[in-house]
Amino acid sequence: MSNYSRIAIVEDDNSFALFLKTILEEGGYKVEIYDDPEIALKKLPDFNPQLVITDLKMPKMDGIAFLEKAKNIFPNIPFIVITAYGTIPSAVEAMKKGAADYITKPLSSPEDFLFLIEKLLSTTKKTEIIEKPFEIPPFEILFAGIEDIYEKILQVASTETTVILYGETGTGKSAIAKAIHLLSGRKGNFVEINCAAIPETLIESELFGYEKGAFTGAIKSKSGKIEMAKDGTLFLDEIAEMNLTIQAKLLRVLQDKTFERLGGLTPIKTNARFIVATNKDLLELVKQGKFREDLYFRINVFPIIIPPLRERKEAILKIAEYIINKLSQKMGKEPLKLSKKSKEILKNYPWPGNIRELENILERNLILAKGKELDIELEFIDIKRVYEDKEISGSLKEMEKKAILEALKKTGGNKKKAAELLGISLRTLYYKIKEYNLEAL
Ligand SMILES: Nc1ncnc2c1ncn2[C@@H]1O[C@H](COP(=O)(O)OP(=O)(O)OP(=O)(O)O)[C@@H](O)[C@H]1O
User: Fold this and answer.
1) pLDDT at residue 130 above 60?
2) Name one GO molecular function term (predicted).
3) Given the CA of residue 359, which atom of ligand 1 is nearest to it?
4) 142 CB less than 6 Å from ligand 1?
5) Ligand 1 centroid to 197 CA: how many Å?
6) Which of 25, 29, 210, 232 has CA atoms 20 to 30 A from the CA of 198?
7) Is there a single domain that holds both residue 316 and residue 409?
8) Are residues 147 and 295 in the same domain?
9) Percent of the chain whose pLDDT exceeds 70
10) What's the rounded Cα separation, in Å, for the pair 359 and 381?
């Protein structure tokens, strides 16, 4: 059997798709059928096929348009188009757009078909197949409730355009940057640098690298993240944390695609694609003179705003269930179902720490879980302490207050029920009501 095993069939004619699937499965391949090309574009990255067979005539999107889009996502795998007898010219057009071969409908010979598949797969160099180098949630989950962002990303992924992701902490900016890299079909690495996580003095050398002797302690030369991302993607997280000097150097890289290592004289060219992210209002920082205006305009070409989790209400449970399954698998436990009360809590809590906070809370609760269902406790106070020092504490308090007000409204002022809804103890609720001066309610 071939080393290559995953084949996707995109075909709205179910009986023909099933017929092909049966032949391929008997030939030892793993097959998935997509009867809608738009859905296929969303799901294919998760299936990560090594070969795609697509019909040329489908109601929602014609096969050529699908082929062009899918080729952007999978530039290195063979595509076979299905063409009805008498429509060979359209197959020829498809081959001009990058299809490797075509088959006719009805199929003339199952043996020839399998032979063609074997041949195409064996000529695809194994090294050209990009396996996912990192873990991200399946696209269906990653973009749950923000499908419009997925559409945007499909358009921009294969271009050179700099993308800027705006979003609160934990909304999935880094995961979405990885998705863009995967969809770009770039052969180089995905390299990440979080400007808030490293001391300001080190950002420059981390980014640009240095030559031996560039500064005390530089005992040998080292390449920086920009060099490491050559032909790949460089993700600059928390870009607002860069000082103005580094911002100027970065602007030059973005404009000229050239830079020097610290202490180096030789200009180095880069082909890296830049994705940047921030949870700050950059325009406000520009006004305050803390962020260069020219850099702002240079990076703000394709902004994507990732909404906070509390604005993805209809997707919260889907995301939570995915996380529960993933964590349970890691813990070697049967995944628990969320209790009715837990579902309400998850939907109503304002999630200041977004999906990362959801992960943390679910993990803590899964460790402590006893019953057959998962009963979520949010431990408000804990969360408050975690965010106390941060700038968002003001808005967090407002969210907390809003959540309490909403819970009291929903329960007609019944504090016991409101506390249950919020996943906190009655004592904590009384404490909060006092803190926020809500006693009059
Ligand atoms: N839709 C989703 N479904 C499930 N898990 C998700 C989803 N989006 C993100 N995650 C997970 O949530 C966590 C936080 O995501 P990520 O690190 O991408 O957020 P971020 O916005 O980059 O955070 P920060 O601003 O703090 O850097 C990660 O473990 C990520 O895998």
Assistant:
1) no
2) ATP binding
3) 12
4) yes
5) 16
6) 232
7) yes
8) yes
9) 91
10) 17
CATH classification at residue 97: 3.40.50.2300
Q: Give me the sheet containing 79-84, strands edge to edge.
A: 30-34, 6-10, 51-55, 79-84, 101-105
pLDDT tens string 201-221: 788 999 999 998 878 777 888
Separation of CA 355 and ligand 1 centre (Å):
6
Q: Give domain status of residue 441, yes or no.
A: no
What is the CA(441)–ligand 1 centre distance, in A? 37
For residues 376 and 97, what is the distance between their CA atoms, to the nearest angstrom? 52
Please tell me if the CB atom of residue 233 comes closer than 6 angstroms to any atom of ligand 1.
no
Q: Which of 355, 361, 362, 387 gets mutated to test ligand 1 (max ligand atoms within 8 A of its CB)?
A: 355
Geometric angle at alpha carbon 400, from 394 and 404, rounded to 5°: 145
40 lines ligand 1 (CB under 6 A): no
| Tokens, residue 204 | 């420059």
- Specify whether the CB–CB gap between 117 and 109 falls below 8 A: no
- Within 161-303, residue ranges assigned H as helices are 173-184, 200-208, 225-228, 244-256, 282-287, 293-299
User: Is there a single domain that holds both residue 263 and residue 401?
Assistant: no
Per the domain annotation, does 358 fall within a domain? yes
Q: How far is the CA of 393 from the centre of ligand 1 (A)?
A: 20
Condensed to tens digits (0 to 9), the pLDDT of residues 407-437 reads 888 788 888 888 877 767 777 788 888 888 8
**Strand pairing category for 209-210 and 222-223:** antiparallel
Ligand 1 and 352: CB distance under 6 A: no
**Apex CA 115: angle with CA 106 and CA 48, to 5°?**
90
Atom of ligand 1 nearest to the CA of 177: 18
Question: Alpha-carbon dihedral of residues 432, 433, 438, 441, nearest 10 degrees?
Answer: 150
| 366 & 335 share domain | yes
Q: How far is the CA of 359 from the centre of ligand 1 (A)?
A: 9
Give residues with Cβ within 8 angstroms of 415, minimum separation 6. Answer: 408, 426, 429, 430, 433
- Tell me the C-alpha distance between 361 and 319, whole Å: 13
Residue 350: domain span: 312-435
Question: Residue 134 falls within a domain, yes or no?
Answer: no
170 CB within 6 A, ligand 1: yes
CATH number at residue 152: 3.40.50.300
* ipTM value for the complex: 0.98
Residue keyed to tokens 């900016």: 173
The total number of structural domains in the chain stands at 3
